[in-house]
Amino acid sequence: MAEVQLQNVRQVFRRSGGALVEAVADVSLSIRDHEFVCLIGPSGCGKTTLLQLVAGLLPVTSGDIAVDGVAIAGPSPERGLVFQRDSVFPWMRAIDNVSYGLKCRGVDKAKRLDIARAYLRQVGLADVERSWPRELSGGMLKRVAVATVFANSPRVLLMDEPFGALDYVTKLQLHQLLLTLWGQYRPTVLFVTHDVDEAMLLADRIIVMKGGRVADDRQITLARPRTVESLALSEAIVHKEVLLRHLGLGALVQDGTAQP
Amino acid sequence: MSRAAIQRLAGAAVLLALAGLWQLASILFPYESAPGEPMVPGWQIIVTHTFLELADYWPGGFGVNAVAQGGARTYAGAALAVLSNSWDTSLRLYAGLALGAAVGLSAGLAVSWSKWSRRLVALPAQILRTFPMMALIPMFQLWFGATFLGMTLFVAFAVGVIFFTGTVNAVGNVADVYVDCARTQGASRFQIYRSIILPAMFPELRSSILLSLGMAWTAVIAAEFLGAQTGLGQIIVFSQYFGYVDRMFVVALFLLLYAAITYALFERLSRRLTEWMPRDHGLGGRDGAR
Question: Chain A within 8 Å of B229 (Cβ-Cβ)?
Answer without folding.
Answer: no
